[in-house]
UniProtKB/TrEMBL annotation:
Gene3D superfamilies linked to this entry: 6.10.250.3030, Potassium Channel Kv1.1, Chain A
Protein name stated in the entry: Uncharacterized protein
Family stated for the protein in its record: Belongs to the Tdpoz family.
Record-annotated BTB domain positions: 13-77
One family name in Pfam for this protein: BACK_BPM_SPOP
GO biological process: protein ubiquitination
Pathway(s) per entry: Protein modification; protein ubiquitination
Amino acid sequence: VRGGGLGFSSGCVDINDMQPEAFDALLYYIYMDSLPAAIRDVDGDRKRELVMDLLAAADRYDIQRLKLICETALSKTLEANTVVTTLTLAEKHHCQRLRQACVQFIASSVDQIK
């Protein structure tokens, strides 16, 4: 990202706390108000990782609608082996709906969660 007169000495801003695909999806969302097909078309663990990164970015940059979209997507894909990680993410980024979905999932699946 070029700094132009914004006081950046090197002319670039490094963003190291998210995957490049998540950053691309964030920019796409900002310009197009929807998620790119690259996120919608990915399945399984890879999609969950991207959506988790995107939720963290949405929280960091205060993009509430995107944050809600990510919360909803993660709520729909909860599994016994991912719910604890998802709950931790929900608490870290103040996602009450996602947190509640995780708690309900844990309560209904306590035998499956290790």
